[in-house]
Design goal:
The model has no long low-confidence stretch (mean pLDDT 81). The protein has helices spanning 4-16, 25-50, 63-72, 123-131, 208-222, 226-244; strands at 75-81, 88-91, 96-107, 113-117, 119-120, 143-147, 150-154, 166-173, 182-185, 188-191. It has two domains: 4-70 and 176-244, no CATH class; 75-173, no CATH class. It is α+β, with helices and mostly antiparallel strands and 245 residues long. The chain starts with a helix and ends with a helix. The chain is built from six helices and ten strands, in the order αααβββββαβββββαα.
Length: 245
């Protein structure tokens, strides 16, 4: 977790160093949330790229391991019951961002419970597989596809071998929306962490500098200061190149 007040103070200090302009708390919160989501979403592009590169035997130097560690902060799981009507439709929670794993919980006629990993397929493939006698899904080889925030599985509830229609769903949630709350003393806004909606960044502590850089870049656009934007963008590019080496 990254302390939002630390980031706020660093951003103000750098933006005001050369009288570039003032960033209001409201603007900062908007920039902060945009920066957090930009960094968070980049994890998945980076890890996809890193999977093509042989790992380092030293886990501390293996960027893929570090990326997974950052993503693991957002892993969640829950048990869901499917909708009725003979369909196994499961609804994802509001904080869902990306699916990690789905397991179907079934119970046979002898009362033996199994948790079988469900294979993900496309909607088109889902329909083709179901109508073919050779590839039709079974309790031992279930399938699913995702439609918006719903998961549709097969075989359907009530099929042989499926007495309990429950799914264990593992997913990556979105970061909580950050919020720097404050009180005004004189003409100065001071941090007010006691407010109920105060929220720090949920990113890994190593992301503090990157957050400052990205927020400054966004502030440079608002302040119509190309110099501030260019400096921040150059630092961001430098950081990205170092990570890819």
């Amino acid at each position: 977790m990254v302390n939002i007040d630390t980031v706020y103070q660093r951003v103000l200090a750098l933006a005001n160093k050369e009288q570039r302009g003032y960033i209001t708390p409201q603007e900062f919160n908007l920039f902060a949330n945009q920066a957090q989501m930009d960094i968070f979403e980049q994890y998945f592009y980076d890890i996809n790229q890193r999977e093509r590169i042989p790992g380092n035997t030293n886990s501390y130097a293996d960027i893929s391991t570090l990326l997974e560690e950052k993503i693991d902060l957002f892993l969640k799981s829950f048990s869901a019951s499917g909708d009725g009507g003979g369909k196994n439709i499961f609804h994802l929670p509001a904080d869902y961002y990306k699916l990690s794993e789905v397991r179907y919980v079934s119970k046979d006629s002898y009362g033996v419970t199994e948790r079988v990993e469900v294979e993900r397929v496309t909607a088109k493939h889902f329909n083709l597989v179901r109508i073919s006698p050779l590839t039709a899904p079974t309790p031992q080889r279930p399938i699913y596809y995702q439609k918006d925030t719903r998961i549709i599985m097969a075989p359907s509830f009530g099929s042989p071998g499926f007495i309990v229609n429950t799914a264990n769903i593992h997913y990556i949630r979105k970061p909580e929306k950050v919020n720097w709350t404050y009180v005004v003393v004189g003409e100065k806004a001071l941090s007010n962490p006691g407010a109920g909606d105060y929220q720090n960044f949920e990113l890994h502590p190593s992301e503090e500098t990157k957050l400052v850089i990205k927020i400054l870049a966004l502030a440079g656009i608002t302040l119509k200061d190309p110099g501030l934007y260019q400096i921040a963008a150059a630092e961001d590019n430098k950081s990205t190149q170092q990570e890819k080496q």
